[in-house]
# Entry
Amino acid sequence: MNMQEPKLTRIQWLFGNVCNYDCSYCPKQLHTSTVKFPDPKILIDAIQYTVSSLRMIDREPAFEFVGGEPTLNPALLEMCQRMGNKQLQNKLTTNGSASLKWFEEHYHYFSTVEISYHTEFADQEHIEKVVDFLMAQKDFNDQRKVHVRIMMHCTNSDDQWAKAISVYEQFKSKGYPIELKLLYSNFTKGFQYLPYKTYQLKYYFNERNEDWDPEQTMYLGNLKYDGVARARHDITKEDLDKIKKDKPIEKNWNFKGYRCNAGKDQFVIDQRGRVWRGWCGEDKSLGNVLYRDVSWQNDAWKCNKDLCRNGFDQLATKFK
# Structure
């Protein structure tokens, strides 16, 4: 008898806004430390409840912990220990500042560790030690246990860009898996990027092996003062999607009227433990994992939004 594998359910869990960085480009509400971590015992019981509840309906949870800075959560190790003995597909998004000892204790609970490199605060030497450690972990087949990815956050400031590219090239020469990350000017509200300059975007697209026509997005108002290399650009995520896929993203992220599996194949948990289909806030809250009263969903939801804004929400399957 063939046993069917349980379906994977992705869960993005926001651990408040406690952070040890104060990046100039990060919205204040994401790092003011005003929303503290809940009591450790409550969090531990909450994740055990979540895992058990999903497995009872033949779903295998895959957690992604975000913040703030999730490694500051004192309950995280014991939360991970309540996930059971199955092969885990969890993801940690971190600034990489936690001690090497912290990573030694926690790494085997994650299949992916994404390190956001912020030049204003990051300790390059420490990040290198963390990455070296994670990349050295191998299984019995000599395959890496943890998929590591470094996201180099780049602003349009000449000084910050230069510093970011300097570290990026050093990491690249060491064989580290690293990507450049452009930043939104209206983060959490839309897909408008900062007004990057021509020389910056040219470098960015060259690194991605993608063709790019600067005339399509160049702001011409100050061209005679800035020159082409320093001319600013009006560029959005949709522009990047067109370049990458050679066609506009379907509906330009407008899935109004579509059925969406957010809340079924994936859901989110906010800083107060409330469960939602997605960060879009569609439908009402499904309950609260801290109170263990969640109504787990098996049906897709008909989208009423004009724009699917959040990257995690966009991963949910949409269909007519």
